[in-house]
Amino acid sequence: MRASVFVGTSLDGFIARPNGALDFLDAGGSEPHGYEEFIAGVDAIVIGRHTLETVLGFDRWPYDKPVFALSSRPLPPIPAGAQVERLSGHPRDVVQQLEARGLGHIYVDGGVTIQRFLDAGMIQRIIVSRVPVLIGSGIPLFGPLSHDIVVRHVTTRHFAGGLVQSEYEVVP
After folding, report:
1. Inter-axis angle of helices 111-119 and 49-56, nearest 10
2. Sheet harboring 105-109: ordered strands across?
């Protein structure tokens, strides 16, 4: 199974403000930057509970793929038509469960979830879109790791709105 990250950050590396707000991401302009193509190539989305709660606050449900929310507690109410299932366990176990269901490519999202999957060696591809704004504090994309994770640069693209996107492969 392949697991990828596609995430936006402030230039100083935060994926959200301390309160979880994502409003600063608009600073990167609104031109297409590959998300639609990326999401078309994944079978399902794996997110943490905090990310699920953030997404539930959006005006509309953003996913047309199955979503697996990692939580040890029951999930909050889910919008009608959304495919959301609760899972729990170590990232390796989660990947094995999803692979057993025939899934071939998952999108991993949410700060702690990304960090846990990276530390467990379950991420193969990372795409980071840096928006041209410094917010000074917030929820970091990367956190403490139990070991170094070596990545290989694949490509970097820049967009008229100032967004700079870099893609990396995780070296096994």
Report:
1. 150
2. 84-87, 67-70, 44-48, 105-109, 2-10, 125-131, 164-170, 151-158
Measured in degrees and rounded to the nearest 5, phi and psi for residue 55 equal -65, -35
Q: Where do the structural domains in the chain lie, given as residue ranges?
A: 2-6+15-170
Which tokens in the block code for residue 43?
A: 């079978």
Is the overall model pTM greater than 0.70, yes or no?
A: yes
Q: Contact at 8 Å (CB) between 69 and 48?
A: yes
Q: What is 2-6+15-170's CATH superfamily?
A: Dihydrofolate Reductase, subunit A (3.40.430.10)
pLDDT along the chain (172 residues), means of 10: 97 95 86 94 97 94 97 95 97 98 97 96 98 97 93 97 96 94
